[in-house]
Design a protein that fits this description.
By secondary structure, the protein is mainly β. It contains no helices and eight strands. Strands 1-7-8 form a three-stranded mixed β-sheet, with no helix packed on it. The termini are far apart. The relative contact order is 0.30.
Length: about 100
């Protein structure tokens, strides 16, 4: 079975996420979710007062549930890297800003 290189989360600007310490995401991997309409949400986003993740980590996209994205190939992200940021509808959640509909 061939493995593919997972894309890095190059940037996350969502300040209200427990995995983000104002410099970078500290989750080992994120999942991009949401329905095939609307925003492509970072399903790993969690707004808690406790900080999570690892102190030093390079974050990757572990899975992409958005089958309508041009970067999605069998639920794996094929983008070189992704950017995560506040959602267009609300800054209270995180979206994949690299999402590109087919």
């Amino acid at each position: 079975m061939a493995t593919m290189e997972m894309p890095r989360v190059a940037e996350c600007t969502v300040l209200g996420c427990s995995y983000n310490d104002h410099t970078a995401c500290h989750a080992a991997a994120v999942t991009i979710g949401g329905r095939d309409t609307g925003e492509a949400e970072c399903a790993t986003f969690i707004p808690l007062d406790v900080k999570g993740g690892l102190p030093k980590v390079m974050t990757f996209v572990g899975a992409c549930q958005r089958t309508d994205c041009t970067h999605n190939d069998h639920l794996e992200c094929g983008a070189a890297s992704v950017r995560v940021g506040p959602g267009a509808a609300s800054a209270d959640h995180a979206d994949c800003l690299t999402f590109s509909p087919r």
